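Milestone M4 deliverable, item 7.
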Amino acid sequence: MFRTCGIPLLCLLLGGCLGQGQWGGGIEWPQRGQLATAARDAALAPETWVPVATAGLLIATDYDQKWTRNMAEDREMFGSDAQDVSSTLRDVATGAYILTALAAPSPNLADKSKGLMVGASTMILDGFVSRGLKDLIKRERPNERNDRSMPSGHASIAASRTTMAMRNLEAINMPDWTRQMTNWSLRGVALGSGFARVEANKHYLSDVLVGYALGNFVANFMYNAFMEGDSELPSITFQPAQGGGAFTFTIPVH
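Output delivered:
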C-alpha cells in the first residue's frame, strides 16, 4: 500500500507544482445559506451516506458483531501488527494532506496560509465532532476496554485528511491517470486505517464505517463552505504612515 501511494504522490511533487491553480485564492467567508448548502452537498456525497447506510444495516443484523469477530480473529490483511499499521496509515493520511497542500499552486503566501488555516480548522472540527459522538453514543468496544467505540477516531482522521488531499489535487495540474491512482491510493489509506482497527479488536466494523463517513463529511463541508463562495474572510491589515501607522480590522457583513 505504501508503494502504491508513494508513486503517484511523487509524480504530483514533480509535476503538480507547475500547475496554474489558485489553491487558497478562492477562500471566502460563507454567505447566508451557503453553510446549509455545503452541509447538504457533503451529506449527499456517496462517501458519506453509503458508509452510514451500510453501518446501519450491519447494526440492524448480526453481521456487525459476527464480521468484526471474524476479522479480529483471522487478521488476514494486517496480521499481528494491525494496531501499529492503523496508526501508521492515519499518519500517512495526514502527511498526504500536508504534501498536497504545499504542492498545490497558490497565488501568494497569504493565500497559501489561508488554505492551510482551513485545513487546520477541519482537523479541529473533525476531532471535536468525533469526541462528541463518542461521549453521546457511549458504545462499548469489542475488547470491552471502554465505551469509546463509536465512531472510530482513526477512520475519521484518516478519511478527513485524505478527502482534503483529494480536494487539494483539484488545483494541481497532473495527468488523469496520476490523479486517479493517487485518489484510489488515498481512499485505500483511509479504509486501511479503519479496517486495521477492526483487526486490532478496537472497533466494530460499523464504527469504522461511521468514522469514515464522518471524516468525509467534515472535510467536504469545510471545503464547500470556505473554499467556494463570493465574499472574503475577516482580515487585519496594517497601513504604514509617517510616524506610525494604522491597523484595520474588516468583517464581511451579508
